[in-house]
Design a protein that fits this description.
11 helices; single chain; mainly alpha; globular
Length: 270
């Protein structure tokens, strides 16, 4: 009598199920948003066919283009300032000893954990105390506060993987401290600087709360323009704009991570 061996039932681990549920919870709203951005109906609740008109409409909307220009100016200026100051801050904290260093490090990275609403209110109170009129440049100043911390943190993490003896060797060979920094240290820090700048650029571009507190009249950024439009309901053109912002943010974040990872791999190989 032949007895067929019992078939083993496939086991599904609870970790896999939990991970799947988390990913569905995180990304299903984005998929729904992208789906309705191609909807012909001006009302997102009903599907009436596929169209690209809402994407074309964005590029002929003067208010959207103006807000996008303001956001690019704010993000570009804030990141440029933060790249220089944040890099110098990270190098100073890693390479030099001075009184109050630990306290300064804690204060420098404090914007990473302070709620945005606190930064926004504090910046607004400071500007009012010095009678500084609100404008596009006050948004830049406010964004430098948190962009500086992000750039400094990424550059500092890059510094931990570098050999400090390379600078000492350059100094022993006759280079000045400035030459050692520019020709030896800065090229090695460049992947971390670029990654930190890309991260700070995305955060600045997406910021709404701080910008809304520090913006002057006629200085709307793109998130502020989106918020002003969704008060009357979410239209497919806003869905399309949101999909474009998510795509750009994801691409920039991916590029930043690839640059950071390639820089670390290059350091380990050397």
């Amino acid at each position: 009598m032949n007895i067929s061996p019992s078939l083993k039932k496939p086991r599904v681990s609870w970790q896999a199920v939990f991970s799947l549920l988390i990913f569905v919870f995180m990304y299903l709203p984005i998929l729904v948003l992208g789906f309705y951005s191609f909807n012909q109906s001006p009302y997102s609740a009903t599907w009436q066919g596929f169209t690209l008109d809402w994407y074309r409409k964005l590029f002929s909307d003067d208010r959207i283009l103006s807000a996008l220009q303001n956001s690019m100016i704010v993000a570009g200026c804030a990141v440029a300032i933060s790249a220089v100051v944040g890099t110098l801050m990270a190098v100073g904290l890693a390479r030099y000893e001075f009184p109050g260093k630990k306290l300064y490090r804690g204060i420098a990275y404090l914007p990473l954990i302070i709620p945005d609403i606190a930064i926004a209110v504090a910046t607004l109170v400071c500007l009012a105390a010095f009678a500084i009129p609100l404008s596009l440049w006050t948004i830049v100043a406010a964004h430098v506060v948190f962009c500086l911390a992000y750039v400094g943190l990424v550059v500092a993490s890059r510094l931990t993987n570098l050999d400090p003896h390379l600078e000492e060797a350059a100094l022993d060979l006759g280079a000045t401290p400035t030459q050692a920094f520019i020709k030896v240290l800065l090229p090695q820090l460049m992947p971390g600087i670029v990654a930190g700048c890309l991260l700070a650029f995305v955060l600045s571009l997406d910021d709404f709360l701080i910008a809304s507190f520090t913006a002057g009249s006629g200085s709307n950024t793109l998130p502020m323009e989106i918020f002003s439009r969704i008060r009357t309901g979410v239209k497919p053109d806003i869905n399309a704009l949101s999909v474009m912002l998510i795509s750009v943010s994801a691409i920039v974040a991916l590029v930043a991570e690839l640059i950071r990872a390639s820089g670390e791999n290059k350091t380990f190989k050397e």
